[in-house]
Amino acid sequence: MFKDTTRTVAALALLLTWACDAAAQSPLDSIARLAIARNLGIRQSREADRQGALGVRQAKGLFLPTLGVEARYSELNGAIDIGDAINPAYAALNQLIGQDRFPTNIHQTLPYKQETKLRSTLPLFNGALFANLAAARAMRDLRGAELASAKRRLDADARVAYLNYARAARAVQIYDATVTVVAENQRVAERLVGAGAATGDAVFRARATAADVQQQRAEAVRLRHAALGALNLLLDREADAPVPMLSDSLLPEPRPLTLDEALTAGLRREERAQTVAGSAAVRAQGRAAAASFMPSLVLAADYGVQGAEYHFDKAHDAGIASVVLQWNLFNGGQDATRREQAASARRTMALRSAEADRMIALDVRTSYEAVDVAQQGLAAATARLDAARRAFQLVDRRFGEGLASHLEWSDARSQLTASELNLVLSRYTLAARVIDLERASALRAIPQ
Protein backbone atom coordinates (compact mmCIF):
# COMPACT_ATOMS: atom_id res chain seq x y z
CA MET A 1 0.00 0.00 0.00
CA PHE A 2 2.78 2.41 0.96
CA LYS A 3 4.78 1.48 -2.13
CA ASP A 4 1.84 2.24 -4.44
CA THR A 5 1.25 5.57 -2.68
CA THR A 6 4.91 6.49 -3.12
CA ARG A 7 4.75 5.75 -6.84
CA THR A 8 1.60 7.79 -7.22
CA VAL A 9 3.20 10.75 -5.44
CA ALA A 10 6.27 10.44 -7.69
CA ALA A 11 4.11 10.47 -10.80
CA LEU A 12 2.16 13.50 -9.56
CA ALA A 13 5.41 15.32 -8.78
CA LEU A 14 6.67 14.68 -12.30
CA LEU A 15 3.32 15.78 -13.71
CA LEU A 16 3.50 19.03 -11.71
CA THR A 17 7.00 19.61 -13.02
CA TRP A 18 5.74 19.19 -16.55
CA ALA A 19 2.85 21.56 -15.90
CA CYS A 20 5.23 24.24 -14.60
CA ASP A 21 7.45 23.83 -17.67
CA ALA A 22 4.67 23.63 -20.24
CA ALA A 23 4.64 27.37 -20.91
CA ALA A 24 8.36 27.44 -21.67
CA GLN A 25 9.32 24.07 -23.09
CA SER A 26 8.13 20.60 -24.06
CA PRO A 27 7.53 18.05 -21.30
CA LEU A 28 10.16 15.97 -23.08
CA ASP A 29 12.67 18.54 -21.79
CA SER A 30 11.63 17.67 -18.25
CA ILE A 31 12.36 14.02 -18.96
CA ALA A 32 15.77 14.97 -20.37
CA ARG A 33 16.60 17.20 -17.38
CA LEU A 34 15.52 14.52 -14.95
CA ALA A 35 17.69 11.94 -16.72
CA ILE A 36 20.73 14.26 -16.78
CA ALA A 37 20.28 14.98 -13.06
CA ARG A 38 19.75 11.37 -11.94
CA ASN A 39 21.40 9.05 -14.46
CA LEU A 40 24.19 6.99 -12.88
CA GLY A 41 26.40 7.13 -15.96
CA ILE A 42 26.24 10.94 -16.06
CA ARG A 43 27.03 11.12 -12.37
CA GLN A 44 30.15 9.01 -12.99
CA SER A 45 31.15 11.35 -15.83
CA ARG A 46 30.66 14.33 -13.52
CA GLU A 47 33.06 12.77 -11.02
CA ALA A 48 35.60 12.18 -13.78
CA ASP A 49 35.22 15.82 -14.83
CA ARG A 50 35.76 16.91 -11.22
CA GLN A 51 38.88 14.75 -11.02
CA GLY A 52 40.21 16.45 -14.15
CA ALA A 53 39.79 19.88 -12.51
CA LEU A 54 41.53 18.63 -9.37
CA GLY A 55 44.38 17.32 -11.52
CA VAL A 56 44.99 20.86 -12.80
CA ARG A 57 45.07 22.17 -9.23
CA GLN A 58 47.59 19.50 -8.33
CA ALA A 59 49.78 20.35 -11.36
CA LYS A 60 49.74 24.05 -10.42
CA GLY A 61 50.73 23.16 -6.86
CA LEU A 62 54.02 21.72 -8.13
CA PHE A 63 55.16 25.27 -8.96
CA LEU A 64 54.70 26.44 -5.36
CA PRO A 65 57.27 26.08 -2.57
CA THR A 66 57.09 23.06 -0.29
CA LEU A 67 57.72 22.98 3.45
CA GLY A 68 58.14 19.87 5.53
CA VAL A 69 59.72 18.48 8.70
CA GLU A 70 62.43 15.83 8.56
CA ALA A 71 63.66 14.23 11.78
CA ARG A 72 66.05 11.36 12.46
CA TYR A 73 67.42 9.86 15.66
CA SER A 74 69.86 6.95 15.39
CA GLU A 75 71.66 4.58 17.70
CA LEU A 76 75.18 4.32 16.31
CA ASN A 77 77.62 1.44 16.55
CA GLY A 78 81.06 1.61 14.94
CA ALA A 79 80.39 5.02 13.43
CA ILE A 80 83.27 7.36 12.64
CA ASP A 81 84.13 9.67 15.56
CA ILE A 82 85.89 12.82 14.32
CA GLY A 83 87.15 13.41 17.88
CA ASP A 84 89.62 10.55 17.38
CA ALA A 85 91.39 12.66 14.77
CA ILE A 86 91.03 16.10 16.37
CA ASN A 87 91.77 15.39 20.08
CA PRO A 88 95.43 14.24 19.56
CA ALA A 89 96.16 17.28 17.42
CA TYR A 90 94.70 19.62 20.02
CA ALA A 91 96.69 17.87 22.75
CA ALA A 92 99.91 18.44 20.78
CA LEU A 93 99.06 22.12 20.35
CA ASN A 94 98.42 22.48 24.09
CA GLN A 95 101.88 21.01 24.79
CA LEU A 96 103.54 23.39 22.37
CA ILE A 97 101.99 26.51 23.86
CA GLY A 98 102.06 25.19 27.43
CA GLN A 99 98.41 25.93 27.96
CA ASP A 100 95.16 23.93 27.86
CA ARG A 101 93.60 26.28 25.39
CA PHE A 102 92.25 23.60 22.97
CA PRO A 103 89.74 20.94 24.09
CA THR A 104 90.89 17.35 23.92
CA ASN A 105 87.57 15.67 24.76
CA ILE A 106 85.71 16.28 21.51
CA HIS A 107 83.27 13.50 20.71
CA GLN A 108 81.20 13.75 17.53
CA THR A 109 80.14 10.91 15.29
CA LEU A 110 79.37 11.01 11.59
CA PRO A 111 76.56 10.85 10.80
CA TYR A 112 75.07 12.86 13.64
CA LYS A 113 73.08 10.93 16.15
CA GLN A 114 70.09 13.17 15.61
CA GLU A 115 69.11 15.60 12.89
CA THR A 116 65.87 17.55 12.86
CA LYS A 117 65.15 20.25 10.31
CA LEU A 118 62.59 22.18 8.36
CA ARG A 119 63.12 21.78 4.62
CA SER A 120 61.68 24.09 1.97
CA THR A 121 62.16 23.70 -1.77
CA LEU A 122 61.15 25.92 -4.67
CA PRO A 123 61.52 24.95 -8.32
CA LEU A 124 63.28 27.73 -10.21
CA PHE A 125 63.16 26.06 -13.61
CA ASN A 126 61.77 22.68 -14.65
CA GLY A 127 60.36 22.17 -18.13
CA ALA A 128 58.66 18.95 -17.07
CA LEU A 129 56.40 20.92 -14.71
CA PHE A 130 55.06 23.04 -17.55
CA ALA A 131 54.46 19.93 -19.65
CA ASN A 132 52.70 18.31 -16.72
CA LEU A 133 50.42 21.33 -16.30
CA ALA A 134 49.59 21.33 -20.01
CA ALA A 135 48.77 17.61 -19.84
CA ALA A 136 46.54 18.14 -16.80
CA ARG A 137 44.65 20.92 -18.56
CA ALA A 138 44.22 18.75 -21.64
CA MET A 139 42.88 15.94 -19.46
CA ARG A 140 40.47 18.34 -17.77
CA ASP A 141 39.20 19.54 -21.15
CA LEU A 142 38.89 15.94 -22.34
CA ARG A 143 36.81 14.95 -19.30
CA GLY A 144 34.63 18.02 -19.77
CA ALA A 145 34.05 17.17 -23.43
CA GLU A 146 33.26 13.57 -22.52
CA LEU A 147 30.71 14.77 -19.96
CA ALA A 148 29.10 17.11 -22.48
CA SER A 149 28.99 14.34 -25.07
CA ALA A 150 27.44 11.92 -22.59
CA LYS A 151 24.81 14.52 -21.70
CA ARG A 152 23.91 15.01 -25.36
CA ARG A 153 23.57 11.27 -25.90
CA LEU A 154 21.49 10.85 -22.76
CA ASP A 155 19.33 13.84 -23.68
CA ALA A 156 18.41 12.08 -26.92
CA ASP A 157 18.21 8.58 -25.43
CA ALA A 158 15.88 9.66 -22.61
CA ARG A 159 13.48 11.44 -24.95
CA VAL A 160 13.49 8.54 -27.43
CA ALA A 161 12.92 6.09 -24.56
CA TYR A 162 9.91 8.11 -23.50
CA LEU A 163 8.60 8.12 -27.08
CA ASN A 164 8.97 4.34 -27.17
CA TYR A 165 6.93 4.09 -23.98
CA ALA A 166 4.27 6.53 -25.26
CA ARG A 167 4.05 4.66 -28.57
CA ALA A 168 3.52 1.35 -26.78
CA ALA A 169 0.90 2.97 -24.54
CA ARG A 170 -0.91 4.33 -27.63
CA ALA A 171 -0.92 0.83 -29.11
CA VAL A 172 -2.56 -0.52 -25.95
CA GLN A 173 -5.23 2.18 -26.23
CA ILE A 174 -5.91 1.19 -29.84
CA TYR A 175 -6.28 -2.45 -28.87
CA ASP A 176 -8.57 -1.45 -25.99
CA ALA A 177 -10.83 0.32 -28.47
CA THR A 178 -10.64 -2.66 -30.82
CA VAL A 179 -11.65 -5.06 -28.03
CA THR A 180 -14.86 -3.07 -27.56
CA VAL A 181 -15.60 -3.15 -31.28
CA VAL A 182 -15.02 -6.89 -31.71
CA ALA A 183 -17.13 -7.59 -28.63
CA GLU A 184 -19.96 -5.63 -30.22
CA ASN A 185 -19.34 -7.51 -33.48
CA GLN A 186 -19.72 -10.81 -31.65
CA ARG A 187 -23.02 -9.64 -30.20
CA VAL A 188 -24.25 -8.61 -33.68
CA ALA A 189 -23.17 -11.96 -35.13
CA GLU A 190 -25.10 -13.83 -32.46
CA ARG A 191 -28.16 -11.67 -33.17
CA LEU A 192 -27.95 -12.31 -36.92
CA VAL A 193 -27.62 -16.05 -36.41
CA GLY A 194 -30.59 -15.99 -34.07
CA ALA A 195 -32.62 -14.13 -36.70
CA GLY A 196 -31.57 -16.60 -39.39
CA ALA A 197 -29.76 -13.91 -41.37
CA ALA A 198 -26.35 -15.60 -40.96
CA THR A 199 -24.95 -19.05 -40.44
CA GLY A 200 -23.41 -20.31 -37.18
CA ASP A 201 -19.84 -19.96 -38.41
CA ALA A 202 -20.19 -16.16 -38.09
CA VAL A 203 -20.32 -16.48 -34.30
CA PHE A 204 -17.24 -18.69 -34.21
CA ARG A 205 -15.36 -16.30 -36.47
CA ALA A 206 -16.32 -13.38 -34.20
CA ARG A 207 -15.08 -15.28 -31.16
CA ALA A 208 -11.80 -16.10 -32.92
CA THR A 209 -11.35 -12.43 -33.86
CA ALA A 210 -11.99 -11.36 -30.27
CA ALA A 211 -9.45 -13.87 -28.93
CA ASP A 212 -6.86 -12.72 -31.48
CA VAL A 213 -7.30 -9.08 -30.46
CA GLN A 214 -6.98 -10.02 -26.76
CA GLN A 215 -3.72 -11.83 -27.52
CA GLN A 216 -2.34 -8.87 -29.45
CA ARG A 217 -3.35 -6.53 -26.64
CA ALA A 218 -1.50 -8.67 -24.09
CA GLU A 219 1.66 -8.45 -26.21
CA ALA A 220 1.23 -4.68 -26.50
CA VAL A 221 0.94 -4.42 -22.71
CA ARG A 222 4.17 -6.41 -22.35
CA LEU A 223 5.97 -4.06 -24.74
CA ARG A 224 4.62 -1.07 -22.81
CA HIS A 225 6.00 -2.42 -19.54
CA ALA A 226 9.38 -3.13 -21.16
CA ALA A 227 9.56 0.41 -22.59
CA LEU A 228 8.63 1.86 -19.20
CA GLY A 229 11.39 -0.16 -17.53
CA ALA A 230 13.97 1.06 -20.09
CA LEU A 231 12.90 4.67 -19.52
CA ASN A 232 13.05 4.38 -15.73
CA LEU A 233 16.49 2.80 -15.98
CA LEU A 234 17.76 6.01 -17.60
CA LEU A 235 15.98 8.04 -14.91
CA ASP A 236 17.46 5.88 -12.11
CA ARG A 237 14.02 4.93 -10.80
CA GLU A 238 12.18 1.69 -10.12
CA ALA A 239 11.33 -0.19 -13.29
CA ASP A 240 7.56 0.15 -12.81
CA ALA A 241 7.50 3.75 -11.58
CA PRO A 242 4.61 5.49 -13.40
CA VAL A 243 5.18 8.23 -15.97
CA PRO A 244 2.53 10.75 -17.13
CA MET A 245 1.42 10.53 -20.75
CA LEU A 246 2.41 13.06 -23.40
CA SER A 247 -0.03 14.63 -25.83
CA ASP A 248 0.72 13.89 -29.47
CA SER A 249 0.52 17.62 -30.17
CA LEU A 250 3.75 18.08 -28.15
CA LEU A 251 5.83 15.69 -30.21
CA PRO A 252 8.95 17.33 -31.69
CA GLU A 253 8.60 18.33 -35.32
CA PRO A 254 11.23 18.62 -38.06
CA ARG A 255 13.03 21.95 -38.36
CA PRO A 256 13.35 23.77 -41.67
CA LEU A 257 16.95 22.74 -42.25
CA THR A 258 19.08 21.96 -45.30
CA LEU A 259 21.67 19.20 -45.32
CA ASP A 260 24.53 21.70 -45.60
CA GLU A 261 23.20 23.57 -42.56
CA ALA A 262 22.97 20.31 -40.63
CA LEU A 263 26.54 19.37 -41.57
CA THR A 264 27.80 22.80 -40.50
CA ALA A 265 25.96 22.56 -37.20
CA GLY A 266 27.48 19.13 -36.63
CA LEU A 267 30.91 20.75 -36.34
CA ARG A 268 29.86 21.80 -32.83
CA ARG A 269 29.68 18.18 -31.70
CA GLU A 270 31.47 17.43 -28.44
CA GLU A 271 33.41 14.62 -30.09
CA ARG A 272 35.45 17.24 -31.94
CA ALA A 273 36.28 18.90 -28.61
CA GLN A 274 37.47 15.51 -27.40
CA THR A 275 39.89 15.19 -30.31
CA VAL A 276 41.13 18.75 -29.69
CA ALA A 277 41.79 17.89 -26.04
CA GLY A 278 43.49 14.65 -27.07
CA SER A 279 45.74 16.59 -29.44
CA ALA A 280 46.65 18.97 -26.61
CA ALA A 281 47.51 15.98 -24.43
CA VAL A 282 49.92 14.49 -26.98
CA ARG A 283 51.51 17.92 -27.48
CA ALA A 284 52.09 18.02 -23.73
CA GLN A 285 53.64 14.58 -24.02
CA GLY A 286 56.03 16.01 -26.62
CA ARG A 287 56.88 18.94 -24.34
CA ALA A 288 57.66 16.52 -21.51
CA ALA A 289 59.96 14.55 -23.80
CA ALA A 290 61.74 17.75 -24.90
CA ALA A 291 62.06 18.92 -21.29
CA SER A 292 64.10 15.83 -20.45
CA PHE A 293 66.96 17.30 -22.51
CA MET A 294 67.00 20.46 -20.39
CA PRO A 295 68.40 21.00 -16.86
CA SER A 296 66.25 21.59 -13.81
CA LEU A 297 67.07 24.15 -11.14
CA VAL A 298 65.75 23.98 -7.56
CA LEU A 299 66.27 26.24 -4.54
CA ALA A 300 66.41 24.35 -1.23
CA ALA A 301 66.67 25.68 2.31
CA ASP A 302 67.15 23.69 5.56
CA TYR A 303 66.96 24.95 9.13
CA GLY A 304 67.09 22.85 12.30
CA VAL A 305 69.30 21.22 14.93
CA GLN A 306 71.76 18.35 14.71
CA GLY A 307 74.25 16.63 16.94
CA ALA A 308 74.44 14.01 19.65
CA GLU A 309 71.63 15.51 21.78
CA TYR A 310 68.67 17.84 21.29
CA HIS A 311 69.42 21.48 22.09
CA PHE A 312 66.88 24.03 20.92
CA ASP A 313 68.83 27.28 21.14
CA LYS A 314 70.70 29.60 18.82
CA ALA A 315 74.02 28.07 19.74
CA HIS A 316 72.99 24.72 18.23
CA ASP A 317 70.92 25.92 15.26
CA ALA A 318 72.06 24.99 11.79
CA GLY A 319 70.90 26.36 8.45
CA ILE A 320 71.81 25.71 4.86
CA ALA A 321 70.64 27.13 1.54
CA SER A 322 71.37 25.40 -1.75
CA VAL A 323 70.79 25.83 -5.43
CA VAL A 324 70.59 22.37 -6.97
CA LEU A 325 71.18 21.82 -10.68
CA GLN A 326 70.26 18.49 -12.25
CA TRP A 327 70.91 17.68 -15.87
CA ASN A 328 70.55 14.25 -17.36
CA LEU A 329 73.17 14.08 -20.10
CA PHE A 330 72.67 10.48 -21.19
CA ASN A 331 70.23 7.73 -20.21
CA GLY A 332 70.58 5.16 -22.93
CA GLY A 333 68.53 6.99 -25.55
CA GLN A 334 65.31 6.88 -23.54
CA ASP A 335 64.62 10.61 -23.99
CA ALA A 336 65.03 10.43 -27.76
CA THR A 337 62.68 7.46 -27.85
CA ARG A 338 60.09 9.40 -25.86
CA ARG A 339 60.26 12.23 -28.39
CA GLU A 340 59.67 9.76 -31.22
CA GLN A 341 56.72 8.28 -29.32
CA ALA A 342 55.23 11.77 -28.86
CA ALA A 343 55.59 12.49 -32.57
CA SER A 344 53.85 9.21 -33.39
CA ALA A 345 51.06 10.05 -30.94
CA ARG A 346 50.57 13.43 -32.67
CA ARG A 347 50.18 11.72 -36.03
CA THR A 348 47.73 9.24 -34.52
CA MET A 349 45.61 12.05 -33.07
CA ALA A 350 45.56 13.84 -36.43
CA LEU A 351 44.22 10.67 -38.04
CA ARG A 352 41.71 10.21 -35.24
CA SER A 353 40.49 13.79 -35.65
CA ALA A 354 39.96 13.27 -39.38
CA GLU A 355 38.12 10.02 -38.65
CA ALA A 356 35.88 11.77 -36.10
CA ASP A 357 34.97 14.44 -38.65
CA ARG A 358 34.02 11.79 -41.19
CA MET A 359 31.97 9.84 -38.66
CA ILE A 360 30.11 12.98 -37.55
CA ALA A 361 29.37 13.92 -41.18
CA LEU A 362 28.06 10.41 -41.90
CA ASP A 363 25.96 10.47 -38.73
CA VAL A 364 24.43 13.82 -39.68
CA ARG A 365 23.74 12.75 -43.27
CA THR A 366 22.14 9.46 -42.18
CA SER A 367 19.96 11.18 -39.56
CA TYR A 368 18.89 13.87 -42.03
CA GLU A 369 17.83 11.33 -44.64
CA ALA A 370 16.02 9.29 -41.97
CA VAL A 371 13.90 12.33 -41.07
CA ASP A 372 12.99 12.85 -44.73
CA VAL A 373 11.95 9.20 -45.13
CA ALA A 374 9.95 9.33 -41.88
CA GLN A 375 8.05 12.39 -43.13
CA GLN A 376 7.11 10.55 -46.30
CA GLY A 377 6.09 7.53 -44.24
CA LEU A 378 3.85 9.64 -42.01
CA ALA A 379 2.05 11.12 -45.03
CA ALA A 380 1.48 7.64 -46.45
CA ALA A 381 0.30 6.30 -43.08
CA THR A 382 -2.22 9.15 -42.74
CA ALA A 383 -3.65 8.44 -46.19
CA ARG A 384 -3.78 4.71 -45.43
CA LEU A 385 -5.70 5.25 -42.20
CA ASP A 386 -8.22 7.54 -43.87
CA ALA A 387 -8.91 4.95 -46.58
CA ALA A 388 -9.11 2.07 -44.08
CA ARG A 389 -11.50 4.00 -41.83
CA ARG A 390 -13.85 4.79 -44.73
CA ALA A 391 -13.75 1.19 -45.96
CA PHE A 392 -14.56 -0.17 -42.50
CA GLN A 393 -17.49 2.22 -42.07
CA LEU A 394 -19.04 0.94 -45.29
CA VAL A 395 -18.45 -2.74 -44.49
CA ASP A 396 -19.65 -2.31 -40.90
CA ARG A 397 -22.90 -0.75 -42.08
CA ARG A 398 -23.46 -3.55 -44.59
CA PHE A 399 -22.59 -6.20 -41.99
CA GLY A 400 -25.09 -4.75 -39.53
CA GLU A 401 -27.74 -5.07 -42.22
CA GLY A 402 -26.72 -8.64 -43.03
CA LEU A 403 -25.41 -7.73 -46.49
CA ALA A 404 -21.72 -8.48 -45.81
CA SER A 405 -20.07 -11.62 -44.50
CA HIS A 406 -18.17 -11.70 -41.26
CA LEU A 407 -15.03 -12.47 -43.22
CA GLU A 408 -15.35 -9.09 -44.98
CA TRP A 409 -16.02 -7.31 -41.71
CA SER A 410 -13.09 -9.01 -39.95
CA ASP A 411 -10.72 -8.15 -42.80
CA ALA A 412 -11.85 -4.50 -42.83
CA ARG A 413 -11.49 -4.25 -39.05
CA SER A 414 -7.99 -5.78 -39.16
CA GLN A 415 -6.99 -3.30 -41.85
CA LEU A 416 -8.28 -0.41 -39.74
CA THR A 417 -6.46 -1.58 -36.61
CA ALA A 418 -3.25 -2.11 -38.57
CA SER A 419 -3.60 1.34 -40.12
CA GLU A 420 -4.13 2.97 -36.72
CA LEU A 421 -1.08 1.20 -35.31
CA ASN A 422 0.95 2.13 -38.39
CA LEU A 423 0.02 5.81 -38.01
CA VAL A 424 1.09 5.76 -34.35
CA LEU A 425 4.33 4.03 -35.31
CA SER A 426 4.99 6.51 -38.13
CA ARG A 427 4.24 9.55 -35.98
CA TYR A 428 6.52 8.45 -33.13
CA THR A 429 9.19 7.22 -35.53
CA LEU A 430 9.34 10.68 -37.08
CA ALA A 431 9.61 12.28 -33.62
CA ALA A 432 12.42 9.89 -32.66
CA ARG A 433 14.32 10.62 -35.87
CA VAL A 434 13.93 14.35 -35.32
CA ILE A 435 15.52 13.88 -31.90
CA ASP A 436 18.32 11.83 -33.43
CA LEU A 437 19.00 14.58 -35.98
CA GLU A 438 19.13 17.13 -33.15
CA ARG A 439 21.74 14.94 -31.47
CA ALA A 440 23.77 14.30 -34.61
CA SER A 441 23.84 17.96 -35.66
CA ALA A 442 24.13 19.40 -32.13
CA LEU A 443 21.06 21.54 -32.87
CA ARG A 444 19.74 21.45 -29.34
CA ALA A 445 21.00 23.22 -26.23
CA ILE A 446 21.32 20.55 -23.57
CA PRO A 447 19.10 21.32 -20.52
CA GLN A 448 21.05 21.78 -17.30
Question: What's the SSE blueprint?
Answer:
Elements: H1 2-21, H2 27-38, H3 40-61, E1 66-73, E2 80-81, H4 83-97, E3 109-110, E4 114-125, H5 127-194, H6 201-234, H7 259-265, H8 270-291, E5 296-307, E6 317-326, H9 334-400, H10 406-440
Helix pairs in contact: 2-5, 3-5, 5-6, 5-8, 5-10, 8-9, 9-10
Characterization of this structure:
The chain is an alpha+beta fold. The chain is 67% helix and 10% strand. Strands 1-4-5-6 form a 4-stranded antiparallel β-sheet, with no helix packed on it. It folds into 2 domains: 2-38 and 131-292 and 333-440, Outer membrane efflux proteins (OEP); 78-110, no CATH class. The radius of gyration is 40 Å and the shape is elongated. It has helices at 2-21, 27-38, 40-61, 83-97, 127-194, 201-234, 259-265, 270-291, 334-400, 406-440; strands at 66-73, 80-81, 109-110, 114-125, 296-307, 317-326.
Rg: 40 Å
- What would the average pLDDT be, to the nearest integer? 86
* Total discrete domains: 2
Largest sheet: 4 strands, antiparallel
Distance between the termini: 35 Å
Strand/helix succession: HHHEEHEEHHHHEEHH
Low-confidence stretches: 6-13, 15-24
Structural class: alpha+beta
CATH homologous superfamily designation of the largest domain = Outer membrane efflux proteins (OEP)
Q: Could you tell me the number of beta strands?
A: 6
CATH class of the largest domain: Mainly Alpha
Shape assignment: elongated
Q: What is the overall number of helices?
A: 10
Helix content: 55-70%
**CATH architecture identity of the largest domain:** Up-down Bundle
Neighbour order of strands in the largest sheet: 1-4-5-6
Please state roughly what percent of the residues sit in beta strands, choosing from under 5%, 5-15%, 15-25%, 25-35%, 35-45% or over 45%.
5-15%
CATH topology of the largest domain: Outer membrane efflux proteins (OEP)
